[in-house]
Amino acid sequence: CLFQSSHQSVRMMAALDVQVGSVRQQVAKLVKESLNATVPEVADVEPLVSACNNAKNGDYQCNNAMGIWAKIKGKDARFKNPNAIGQELARNLPESAVVESTSVAGPGFLNVVLSTLWIEQKIHQMLKHGVSCWAPVLTVERAVVDFSSPNIAKEMHVGHLRSTIIGDSIASMLEYCNVTVLRRNHVGDWGTQFGMLIEYLFEEFPNWEEIQEQAIGDLQVFYKKAKAKFDADPEFKKRSQKAVVSLQGGEEKYVLAWRQICNISRREFNVVYERLHVTLEEKGESFYHPYIAGVLKELEEKNLIEESEGARVITVPGHTIPLLVVKGDGGFNYASTDLSALWYRLNEEAAQWIIYVTDVGQSQHFDMFFKAAKRAGWLPEDESKYPKVKHVGFGLVLGTDGKRFRTRSSEVVRLVDLLDEAKSRSKQGLVDRGREGEWTPEELEDASEALGYGAIKYADLKNNRTTNYTFNFDQMLDIRGNTAVYLLYAHARICSIIRKSGKDIEELKQTGTLKLSHPSERQLGLQLVRFGEFVEDALTDLLPNTLCEYLYSLSGMFTEFYTICKVINSEEETSRLLLCEATATIMRECFKLLGITPLYRL
Ligand code: ARG
To answer: Per the database record, which ranges form the Arginyl tRNA synthetase N-terminal domain (predicted)?
Structure first.
């Protein structure tokens, strides 16, 4: 069975008697039982449970009463109005350690106050068994996240950086929820431009087989020169076009040259991935090339492919132009590759959810080929059913001038230069704070990287991805605002409180008790146990900014607690140290899901 491992881990957690799922899911389970008891005649009502907007009303609310009222109005003599349904839902809520009390407001809103004792136990469980026991339960078990995906010999630009950062975070959140994730780098390593690159390689480096790949130098410069020659020299152009045919025919010399060019790019990409600690597996466009003919044959047999001006196309609903799948010259394109990749992911990789992270500029392409796949019967008409596909689009990266982010000489910004600058600015900040003398050079390097790269990632992730965002070093490295730097400092401060207490926190986890006595403690505790549902929400809309908002407000609630409640040398010291540790643990998990390296002292 493909999914055994994830089932096993769920079972193991059950054996530990740790409840599985987010708090909201646990409340929803109770509401579901109550719904079954209250209105058994209405089948399949999904429990509508959300956090209360106003903490005065309670912690969670159930909004089912009005919808049910609309269905049973006049048919069920027991209920005169929606409020009566709410009352009955409250009465039928099963006895549970989760719930402290309930109340019904207005047109039947059922408010639930969680048991503080239960919250305390939940936090203690998490401290003992790890954050995995708070993971929401998702219906998906296997997903592909197609992200980063730069193009060989072309520059890896800030758009690819956004894709890398957003895709990595989505993949990590899914992994946290026990989903098997295939992290796919769909690099553009195929296409007609390779004819020109290979021909240029042969001409400029006659001994290309012996030379080190480094000798070729900067591939972007190489690309520009090849392109210039291609445009200026008709003979070269002809040879390039023939080279494409030789490459696609699998002629060894051409395949070797192609591979050498790909290797140079790959090395450059990997530098960025390593620095950002992003893992992903390359299955580039070329990988799917052998599948294209078969896939097109299937689509042909299903009568989906038509002739249009010498090319072969698929018409899709809602678009005036059809999807081009074979060009006039018989060559394949981006869409034929993507259709084949989708076929492969569905059939060979058994993926249930396939997520594509690119700029919004490509939405039309995705919408069209998704619709073609639907016409082929690969995807269900009902989009709530698996397998599902989703284009996760994002906006542009802008410079502080409001225009597309470029260097001063209006060149595309090299990603390593960006990373270098973020790191060196962070380092300077640490040096200014006198850390150079206190830390080893290695510690200084590590902290500079965590701050600098963390700042870039967080500045990107904290925005709703669909909007454009402005790249601004001063802003993202500000220690005060909603930045990774601020959050990393906040985390380090909590760690230092625990250190200063001189207590062995691991021992306290085993022997101590956690009590949420003060309102600011309960507020913080509640925010902690709600972690899982924010991950769930972030994944429902595939919006990592949801998790950033959670983290930022968690940090704010900690500050509130710490301002009001004395920790060290107070009567509640043990309990409050455990609350500090729980906060630091959840902050670290957020960092992990956002791709940020935590720092323990700053
Ligand atoms: N290489 C493409 C680009 O740079 C992104 C590929 C995205 N993935 C996909 N399956 N089309 O724009």
So the answer is: 25-114
Give CA–CA dist 453/484, Å, rounded.
9
What CA–CA distance (Å, rounded) separates 141 from 181? 8
Calculate the CA 517 to chain-centre distance.
36
Under DSSP, is residue 210 helix (H, G, I), strand (E, B) or coil?
Answer: coil
**How many other C-beta atoms lie within 10 A of the C-beta of residue 52?**
15
Question: Rounded CA gap, 20 and 25, in Å?
Answer: 9
Q: Identify the residue whose C-alpha is closest to ligand 1 atom 8.
A: 186
Ligand 1 pocket, residue 338 CB under 6 Å: yes
Is residue 356 lining ligand 1, measured as CB closer than 6 Å? yes
pLDDT value at residue 16: 42
| CA-closest residue to ligand 1 atom 3 | 150
471: tokens are 């790249």
Contact 265 CB / ligand 1 (< 6 Å): no
* Distance of CA 370 from the midpoint of ligand 1 (Å): 15
- Note the pLDDT tens digit of each residue in 480-505: 999 999 999 999 999 999 999 999 99
Ligand 1 probe mutation, 154, 182, 358, 368, most atoms within 8 A of CB: 358
Inter-residue contact 327 to 318 (CB < 8 Å): no
For this complex, say whether ipTM is above 0.90: yes
Rounded distance, CA 550 to CA 22, Å?
15
Ligand 1 atom closest to 338 (CA): 10
Is 87 close to ligand 1, i.e. is its CB under 6 Å away?
no
Best of 145, 146, 147, 149 for a ligand 1 pocket test (most atoms within 8 Å of beta carbon)? 149
What pLDDT does residue 64 have?
96
Write out the two tokens for 326.
């074979």
Instruction: Say yes or no: CB of residue 223 within 6 Å of ligand 1.
Output: no
Q: What percent of the chain has pLDDT over 70?
A: 97
CA distance 85 to 104: 10
Hey, which residues does 51 pair with through a beta bridge? 60
3-state secondary structure of 281: strand
Q: What is the pLDDT of residues 70-115, one digit of tens each?
A: 999 989 889 999 999 999 999 999 999 999 999 999 999 999 999 9
Expressed in angstroms and rounded, the spacing between residue 143 Cα and the centre of ligand 1 is: 17
The two three-digit tokens of residue 404, written as one number: 């597309």
pLDDT in tens, 313-362: 999 999 999 999 999 988 899 999 999 999 999 999 999 999 999 999 99
Mean pLDDT score, 434-446:
95
Can you tell me the distance from the alpha carbon of 142 to that of 181, in angstroms, rounded to the nearest whole number? Answer: 6
Count other C-beta atoms under 10 Å from residue 459's C-beta: 26
Determine which of 40-49, 389-398, 588-597 has the lowest per-residue pLDDT on average: 40-49
The best mutation among 144, 156, 162, 186 to test binding of ligand 1, ranked by most ligand atoms within 8 Å of the C-beta, falls on 186
Q: Using pLDDT thresholds of 50, 70 and 90, give the confidence band for residue 18.
A: low
What are the residues whose beta carbons fall under 8 Å from the beta carbon of 527, sequence distance 6 or more?
550, 553, 554, 557
What residue owns the CA closest to ligand 1's atom 6? 149
